[in-house]
């Protein structure tokens, strides 16, 4: 009996897994049991997958049979020992406090013998069901085989992923993008043939095609039948990948993980681990929810390198915006070489997000003092528009007109205003205030608030324009037209732009362990991220009059 079994590469836990020998075949057999203390539940508005639970508010819960069915499918998809034995896993939802009459319409979701539902009324039937599943002998060996199995996506899941991604004709690779792709594929073939391991690092600025390469690799590696997963350190980015690429498929969503999901994997369980947005790698994967036994202080980069024969890191060093992020080329290279691993690096010098304008990205780097050169006047580019607005009203009006014309547009700002929780009436607080202009920040959590989309969907879902985005929701995304509000944390003084740490409301910068030098770099990187989200143009405005005057000398109104 495995209690609170953590599903591989996730934070989710199955209440109980019973391991034993199948009574009919003698093969290993596993039964996932989801325990619910509910005393009464009913179908939610004729939706077979959702239920309302008495005494637990008006928000629906996932049907327990749907939940345990998903656990079964996930386990079969990721535990190597079950790759060719999917039917060895079954599931049961046991509502031990509810009678049949209290949950009568929940039985409609019981579709076959592999996933069952029992109430306290059917306790005897549940016992009979268990006896029918398992032979009367120890299941210790079966449990050991489950616990010691390799963790990797199944061949069926890889085939599904390959089919989904390879059918997307927008994944066209050009020049250095193609070089990076081919270098990774060569490394994969070489590592498998020689039973070796090597690291690939792909660097590039915003829009240089890093994520297109990542998804192309995910599709091609899957298509060749090699084990591969995609991972990031960004909730917004990962959830959008799951929503857009997986298109609602629970199985496909499981291909997209987080960096902290690899704390307990065995060496080289995967052929390839694609670490997208690798500048978000943290010092360790530990957080306040990490169990004491897992608190080893092990570097997160070590966990990621350990997980695959060919770990691939795609990053932009100028997008490190949080204390503790250490996804830099030098850090990854030094760690890999300390392990005796060969490191291959490809720099993407094409620049596609900003309308193909490398000139604009270079202008931003000079403006923010990130490349050692002095700021210069924006001289224009046929592929990209830059403008300075006189007020937040003008900034919003300009972008709203773009939105009305059928383009995508968003407004972002430096983290210089408080970020309140929603009001009791399910509305957002207008925290970003500049004179009498006020707008709310994007939603904090993973649930929509009124017409405002969940945090992870702010950049892509309808309704996102009505909120101001922060760096943590904008990073990794792109839209046609971009508006950026410079807050009082970055101002022009004595001939240059300087950062004002005390003006920032970012909780990450209030930590005692963050030096002023680190805070300065993080604030500059934050504006670098914000300024490079647009594909067709960017409009800017500063709340500080002296900074606004400085910008007017660089950009025409």
From TrEMBL:
Keyword ATP-binding annotated: yes
Molecular function terms from GO: helicase activity
Any Pfam family: SLFN-g3_helicase
Domain AAA+ ATPase, first and last residues per copy: 196-341
InterPro entries (UniProt xref): AAA+_ATPase (IPR003593), SLFN_3-like_DNA/RNA_helicase (IPR018647)
Record's keyword terms, sorted: ATP-binding, Helicase, Hydrolase, Nucleotide-binding
Name of the molecule in the record: DNA/RNA helicase domain-containing protein
Natural source organism: Nonomuraea harbinensis
């Amino acid at each position: 009996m495995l209690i609170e079994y953590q599903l591989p590469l996730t934070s989710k836990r199955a209440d109980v897994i019973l391991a034993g020998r199948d009574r009919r075949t003698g093969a290993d057999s596993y039964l996932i049991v989801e325990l619910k203390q509910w005393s009464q539940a009913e179908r939610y508005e004729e939706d077979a997958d959702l239920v309302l639970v008495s005494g637990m508010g008006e928000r629906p819960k996932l049907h327990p049979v749907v939940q345990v069915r998903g656990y079964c499918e996930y386990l079969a998809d990721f535990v190597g020992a079950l790759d060719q034995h999917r039917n060895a896993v079954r599931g049961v939802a046991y509502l031990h406090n509810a009678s049949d009459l209290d949950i009568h319409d929940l039985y409609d979701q019981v579709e076959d013998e592999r996933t069952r539902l029992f109430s306290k009324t059917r306790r005897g039937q549940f016992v009979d069901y268990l006896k029918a599943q398992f032979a009367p002998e120890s299941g210790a060996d079966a449990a050991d085989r489950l616990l010691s199995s390799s963790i990797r996506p199944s061949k069926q899941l890889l085939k599904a992923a390959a089919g989904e991604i390879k059918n997307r004709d927008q994944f066209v690779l050009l020049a250095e993008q193609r070089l990076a792709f081919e270098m990774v594929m060569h490394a994969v073939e070489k590592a498998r043939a020689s039973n070796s391991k090597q690291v690939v690092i792909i660097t590039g600025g915003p829009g240089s095609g890093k994520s297109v390469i990542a998804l192309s690799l995910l599709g091609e590696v899957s298509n060749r039948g090699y084990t591969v997963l995609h991972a990031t350190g960004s909730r917004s980015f990962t959830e959008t990948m799951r929503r857009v690429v997986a298109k609602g498929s629970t199985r496909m969503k499981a291909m997209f993980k987080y960096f902290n999901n690899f704390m307990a994997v065995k060496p080289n369980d995967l052929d390839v681990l694609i670490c997208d947005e690798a500048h978000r790698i943290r010092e360790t994967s530990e957080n306040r929810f990490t169990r004491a036994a897992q608190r080893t202080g092990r570097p997160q980069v070590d966990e990621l390198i350990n997980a695959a024969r060919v770990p691939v890191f795609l990053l932009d060093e100028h997008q490190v915006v949080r204390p503790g992020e250490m996804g830099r080329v030098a850090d990854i290279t030094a760690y890999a070489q300390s392990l005796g691993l060969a490191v291959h690096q490809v720099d993407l010098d094409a620049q596609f997000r900003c309308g193909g304008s490398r000139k604009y990205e270079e202008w931003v780097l000079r403006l923010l003092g990130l490349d050692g050169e002095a700021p210069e006047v924006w001289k224009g580019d046929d592929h990209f528009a830059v403008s300075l607005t006189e007020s937040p009203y003008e900034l919003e009006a300009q972008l709203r007109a773009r939105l009305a014309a059928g383009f995508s547009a968003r407004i972002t700002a430096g983290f210089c205003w408080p970020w309140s929780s929603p009001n009791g009436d399910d509305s957002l607080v207008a925290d970003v205030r500049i004179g009498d202009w006020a707008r709310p920040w994007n939603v904090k959590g993973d649930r929509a608030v009124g017409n405002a989309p969940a945090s992870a969907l702010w950049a892509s879902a309808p309704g996102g324009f009505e909120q101001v985005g922060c760096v943590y929701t904008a990073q990794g995304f792109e839209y046609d037209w971009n508006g950026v509000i410079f807050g009082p944390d970055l101002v022009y003084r004595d001939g240059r732009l300087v950062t004002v740490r005390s003006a920032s409301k970012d909780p990450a910068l209030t930590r005692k362990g963050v030096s002023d030098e680190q805070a300065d770099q993080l604030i500059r990187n934050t504006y670098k991220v914000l300024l490079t989200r647009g594909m067709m143009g960017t409009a800017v405005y500063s709340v500080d009059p002296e900074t606004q005057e400085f910008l007017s000398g660089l950009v025409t109104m």
